[in-house]
Amino acid sequence: MSAGWFRRRFLPGGPLPAPRPPRPRASPVPYRRPRFLRGSGSGPGTADAPRRPDARPVRSPARGRALPWNAGYAEIINAEKSEFNEDQAACGQLCIRRCEFGAEEDQEWLALCSEELLTGHYWALFDGHGGPAAAILAANTLHSCLRRQLEAVVEGVVAARPPMHLSGHCVCASDPQFVEEKGIRAEDLVIGALESAFQECDEVIGRELEASGQVGGCTALVAVSLQGKLYVANAGDSRAILVRKDEVRPLSSEFTPETERQRIQQLVGVLQREAVEPQLVSPQSPEATREPDLCLASLPKAFVYPELLAGEFTRLEFPRRLKGDDLGQKVLFRDHHMRGWSYKCVEKSDLKYPLIHGQGRQARLLGTLAVSRGLGDHQLRVLDTNIQLKPFLLSVPQVTVLDMDQLELQEEDVVVMATDGLWDVLSNEQVAQLVRSFLPGNREDPHRFLELAQMLIHSTQGKDDGPTGEGQVSYDDISVFVIPLHNQGQRSDGH
Amino acid sequence: MSAGWFRRRFLPGGPLPAPRPPRPRASPVPYRRPRFLRGSGSGPGTADAPRRPDARPVRSPARGRALPWNAGYAEIINAEKSEFNEDQAACGQLCIRRCEFGAEEDQEWLALCSEELLTGHYWALFDGHGGPAAAILAANTLHSCLRRQLEAVVEGVVAARPPMHLSGHCVCASDPQFVEEKGIRAEDLVIGALESAFQECDEVIGRELEASGQVGGCTALVAVSLQGKLYVANAGDSRAILVRKDEVRPLSSEFTPETERQRIQQLVGVLQREAVEPQLVSPQSPEATREPDLCLASLPKAFVYPELLAGEFTRLEFPRRLKGDDLGQKVLFRDHHMRGWSYKCVEKSDLKYPLIHGQGRQARLLGTLAVSRGLGDHQLRVLDTNIQLKPFLLSVPQVTVLDMDQLELQEEDVVVMATDGLWDVLSNEQVAQLVRSFLPGNREDPHRFLELAQMLIHSTQGKDDGPTGEGQVSYDDISVFVIPLHNQGQRSDGH
Q: Three-class SS of residue B260?
């Protein structure tokens, strides 16, 4: 766990760091040659891509290479933040073949192959924390997990409607009717494959980091184009948006301690109800003494899990951290079952550090982590304690589906995927405005999507000539994909 | 647990039951005089309201009484379903006074009072199952719980912005800034009060049913008009919609075993991963044998809670219940982490009865219950077993807020609240169409909202002259409120 990690995201408006001299990157994760790009080149952002660890936008290493549909990719590494690049990326063509379980495990599978059953494209961004190890592993692994998961169900994916039995033989005459009633479509198999692939990749990362004595975690944002649909799977705080002439549509939502507050609070149980509502407890009558247990008795004891907090944290949320002066006062709070707020009388245990503390970009889980979903972090503990973070984290992504065939796509309709550093500084609307002002004037430029990705990053660096003119600055690593959607319904249909 | 309960909702298209002679209603719950209606009349649907236990719409008992803003209420009792009316309702004026904890507990509080700090209106529908006991208790109790919860925070509700400390004395100079940053508004206190009131009422029902040796549960749908906002709190499968000239807006969503599948499956843990993905487990290598534990070790053991199913049910969802012929086949399934679907090889344990089984209106939790949120059911067990339902149920509602002051309300803008029987037969759009075709032609009728509520119920009875002309039939109890919204911003502002 490298120093400086707990300040992974700088405060906006914080001091501008002095530039540091470039340092050589040294990744302790063994490098694996990426095998999933068309041809033999490495993907953008994979471990061997040339990088300049300074604070200026760099040209994408993939410039001029055969990125699918000339998608643009750019990245920036903030040397002040870390000596390693914690952002990693991967993209390439996905070739899904029909396979028997365990049969072709050892073969190359993502090279362009003539016998494929289905062809798609894959883009992924990983934003690491605690070092780049998990992000590098994810960039090297997740596409393989996804390929395996898709190949396991590919007969169902290419069917008009997935059959109840993968063999296609009905055991029961009414099976197609049940599938119809449940509304199960081919896209549900792709969603399921993405969900399982993230989980599988998380397990692989856990094993590999443990075996090599490393630590760290990363967020993951993946886009997959398959059969005329774009699937966006997100676990973390990166973001993808669709930008069209008259529309900006979010394709993902962020998973942070704030957005997942209720899920996280719920893990540590049903407690303190008697403290919250003292008027319900009257110790005089025998019935009344049983009241606080009613709720507990009817819920699985499993949910009362204060051990996870080791007595060091309070599950409740307050507007700020409480202090001695607040004791005995009625202050605003909320618990896991509440979307609204109420008041409670402050007790000594409420003065502990909050399970989720801080606001917006500063919100932290257990004072440690700014995201609530992602890959890795199996060994992560709160500083100087034995309190684990992993029980509170989910590796499963939220998947949204964009039906591109229904959209009447225009030449300048794009998806912008970027890590959080971009979105800290630019809103969806500002990014859309930059896209719309850039693309129409550069129709002849074969690298215009790449130039756009670089321009987006450039506008986060607070230059006078930044197109927003607002001079906001990001000190985070930033990676951006700009993916043109035009004409891809046909091209992605490899079947 | 009364017989016939497991068929609480009839199959659409099922046989039309022969009419039964009316039976006297006998409620084993002691009747309490409702104290929350303007004047001394009883509310519609409370325990002493006159009822005709036949299958025809009845005139609302509240006709001509001073329902707030002439809201219309109608109900129907289907004698074939149960000899008791399992639908209960309550409505009245809410007068919130400033009070010290425990000071005025014994006083009448909902009579029209001049010293109130805040006045609002309250409507509630409760759809019981397993008998009417829980629904009657809820109709007699929930408004009191809500009043107590609101009075405990009323100083914050009437403030421009809730203070960090209820006393109003800042302990820390930056407290208002923290409240501002968290975005805490007065309406969040009302939401919190509704959430806590449902939980408190659930506890009261648990105690009262246990003390009287009764059983049962109910759904709860509550609308509260306060300070120009309409709060709709829902726990169960009733529904409220806003109908305007050019808009139909759902104000609630339903909580059923289907809509809460992932939450319910998650309760019984992280299991069977090794069975789902056998290719990940290779017992030859020492590392591999530890794989299935990786996931379990990193999650709280608390989540692995198969005891709740007592070995009788399977957590996994399949398109239909599996049988012996499916053994060894790869069939469609999904687990708690999946919104999508995948295939798994069927094992013997998959042949157990599913935790959630059935489709749409027929979906049941543990083969027993059609709803996943509500009040009561503390003693409910799966027939002939010791398996409890309560650990899977939530009493906390989802609350939506309608800012009426922002709406430029017209005279015929209404909210329609109804139990599930109405929505089984009529869509939101069909109800809106009936509202729009009825109200403009009856502007002079002082009882037009009542007539509309009756007409809505009438159109579920499959009459030729039903306005939808489709002849669909509901055999369920149905209760409907029609609440006109016009001019109420001013009237509800009692402060």
A: coil
CA-nearest residue to A395 within chain B is B337
Q: CB–CB of A357/A321 below 8 Å?
A: yes
Question: Which three-class secondary structure string do you get for chain A?
Answer: CCCCHHHCCCCCCCCCCCCCCCCCCCCCCCCCCCCCCCCCCCCCCCCCCCCCCCCCCECCCCCCCCCHHHCEEEEECCCCCCCCCCEEEEEEEEEECCCCCCCCCCCCCCCCCCCCCEEEEEEEEEEEECCCHHHHHHHHHHHHHHHHHHHCCHHHHHCCCCCCECCCCCCCCCHHHHHHHHCCCHHHHHHHHHHHHHHHHHHHHHHHHHHHCCCCEEEEEEEEEECCEEEEEEECCCEEEEEECCEEEECCCCCCCCCCHHHHHHHCCCCCHHHHCHHHCCCCCHHHHCHHHHHHHHCCHHHCCHHHHCCCEECCECCCCCCHHHCCCEEEEECCCCCCCEEEECCHHHHCEECEECCHHHCEECCCECCCECEECCCCECCCCCCECHHHCECCCEEEEEEHHHCCCCCCCEEEEECHHHHHHCCHHHHHHHHHHHHHHHCCCCCHHHHHHHHHHHCCECCCCCCCCCCCECCCCEEEEEEECCCHHHHHCCC
B297: exposed, middle or buried (Cβ count in 10 Å: 0-12, 13-18, 19+): middle
Number of residues that make up chain B: 495
Task: Note the pLDDT tens digit of each residue in A226-278.
Answer: 999 999 999 999 999 999 999 999 999 999 999 999 999 888 865 333 323 33
Backbone phi, psi, residue A42, to 5° = -80, 155
Is residue A279 predicted with pLDDT exceeding 90? no
**Interval A28-39: pLDDT, tens:** 333 332 222 222
Q: State the nearest Cα–Cα gap between A400 and chain B, in angstroms.
A: 10
Compute how many other C-beta atoms are within 10 angstroms of the C-beta atom of residue B171.
18
Amino acid at A417: M
Chain B residues whose beta carbon lies within 8 Å of the beta carbon of residue A155: none
Rounded Cα distance between B67 and B453, Å, is 14
**CA separation for the pair B494, B487 (Å, rounded):** 14
Q: B-chain residues within 8 Å CB-CB of A329? A: 165-167, 169, 171
Query: With an 8 Å Cβ cutoff, are B391 and A206 in contact?
Result: no
Residue type, B68: P
Q: How many CB pairs under 8 A join A and B?
A: 227
Q: Which residues of B touch A340 (CB under 8 A)?
A: 187-195, 399
**Nearest neighbour of B331 by CB, restricted to A165, A191, A390:** A165
* Residues in chain B within 8 Å Cβ distance of A330: 165-167
Residue B224 contacts A where some CB pair is shorter than 8 Å? no
Count of Cβ atoms closer than 10 Å to residue B134 Cβ: 33
Q: Give how far Cα B318 sits from Cα of A164, B44, B323, B344, B393, Å.
A: 9, 43, 11, 10, 22
Q: Give the count of beta carbons closer than 10 Å to the beta carbon of residue A21.
A: 7
What is the predicted ipTM? 0.78
Cα B266 to Cα B175, B274, B392: the distances in Å are 38, 17, 10
- Does the distance separating the beta carbons of A340 and B194 come in below 8 Å? yes
| A289-298 tens-digit pLDDT | 333 333 333 3
Alpha carbon distance B204, B148 (integer Å): 14
Task: Please answer yes or no on whether B300 and A326 come within 8 Å at the CB atom.
Answer: no
Query: Which run of H or E residues covers position B364?
Result: strand B364-365
User: Cβ–Cβ of B179/A332 closer than 8 Å?
Assistant: yes
B320/chain A closest Cα distance in angstroms: 6
The reply to whether residue B287 touches residue A339, judged by beta carbons under 8 angstroms, is no
Q: Which residues of B touch A203 (CB under 8 A)?
A: 280, 291, 294-295
